[in-house]
Amino acid sequence: MCGIVGLHLREPSLYPQLGALLTDMLAQMCDRGPDSAGMAIYGDRTWSPEGESTVSLLDCPIPAADLAATLSSTLDTTITGLDLDPTTILHGVVGAEDLAAAVRSVVPTARVIGFGNDLTVLKGVGNPVDLANRFGLPAATGWQGVAHTRMATESAVTAEGSHPFSVGPDECLVHNGSFSNHMSIKHQLERDGVVFDSANDTEVGARFVAKQLAEGVDLEKALLMLNETFDGFYTLLVSTVDSFAVVRDAISCKPAVIAETDQWVAMASEYRALANLPGVENARIFEPEPEEVYVWHR
Ligand SMILES: NC(=O)CC[C@H](N)C(=O)O
């Protein structure tokens, strides 16, 4: 199992409702992965203020305020820290990669789980709705959000193993299924210098896509390349700062449904997660075809 939900808003008047809508969608997918969960929000101006970059991390050994104070003096700019147990968020007027590098050098045992100009990633172990409420997801705002409830197949039930996997700037990937040839692809990527954080199969997909994007390949092409390279079962929802994409493997036994209106595009593992979206009664609703890449841009 595993449950995926994602919402890409086209209508700015809905941005204040992003977190509430996404929480409701996530709640419907709890039974597909009740042990751990994660979410990625694009454009929440509390977590990712305009003009600042944001880094999300797990396993921070010191309070966020203390880390922020150290980073402020290291980077010579004000860094703000927020504890959202077990995730820590840091933001400030500095490049996202520079902030992530500074975090890694000050707290090397912490795990960066997301970085970018507009993205906040939150992950944890426990009931997905409890986590969402603890993080304050219902009050989140923004133009795009993704959430995942995990039933582990490939690595332990830990916050690090939860999805999304966000390994490139403002990028996010969630997965329902399991890749069957990820170890050989992982070894090839390692030979190319890619460093992995976990034993999770989904991370291999995320690192593969991030590598293509970093080399200038567009998201649609990167996902076509993923289809050619990865075997196994997968429904993937992949997002960047301005794109929202869905792809499934050739057999497509992992469920997925997409709904689209002039106001939004939404995707979920099952229709019940879409049933309360405003205007869903007039949406174009369809199941994504095997190996077809669907991409929407902002
Ligand atoms: N049940 C699933 O879809 C699991 C997804 C992925 N293989 C993981 O273990 O994280």
Number of strands: 15
CATH architecture of the largest domain: 4-Layer Sandwich
CATH class of the largest domain: Alpha Beta
Query: CATH H-level name of the largest domain... which superfamily?
Result: Aminohydrolase, N-terminal nucleophile (Ntn) domain
Helix content: 25-40%
- Please count the helical segments: 7
Contiguous low-pLDDT stretches (5 residues minimum) are none
How many individual domains?
2
List the ions, cofactors and other small molecules found in this model. glutamine
CATH topology of the largest domain: Glutamine Phosphoribosylpyrophosphate, subunit 1, domain 1
- Identify the overall geometry: globular
Task: Please characterize this protein's 3D structure.
The chain folds into 2 domains: 3-48 and 118-297, Aminohydrolase, N-terminal nucleophile (Ntn) domain (Glutamine Phosphoribosylpyrophosphate, subunit 1, domain 1, 4-Layer Sandwich), CATH 3.60.20; 49-117, Alpha-Beta Plaits. Helix content is 26%, strand content 30%. The protein has helices at residues 18-28, 64-75, 96-106, 128-135, 182-191, 201-214, 219-229, and strands at residues 3-9, 36-42, 53-58, 79-84, 87-92, 111-116, 119-125, 144-150, 172-179, 232-239, 243-248, 257-260, 264-268, 284-286, 294-297. A hairpin with a 2-residue loop joins strand 4 and strand 5. Helix 2 packs across helix 3 (96-106), helix 5 (182-191) crosses helix 6 (201-214) and helix 6 crosses helix 7. The longest helix has 14 residues, at 201-214. The protein is globular, with a radius of gyration of 18 Å. Glutamine is lined by residues 1-2, 150-155, 175-178, 200-202. This is glutamine--fructose-6-phosphate transaminase (isomerizing). Its EC number is 2.6.1.16.
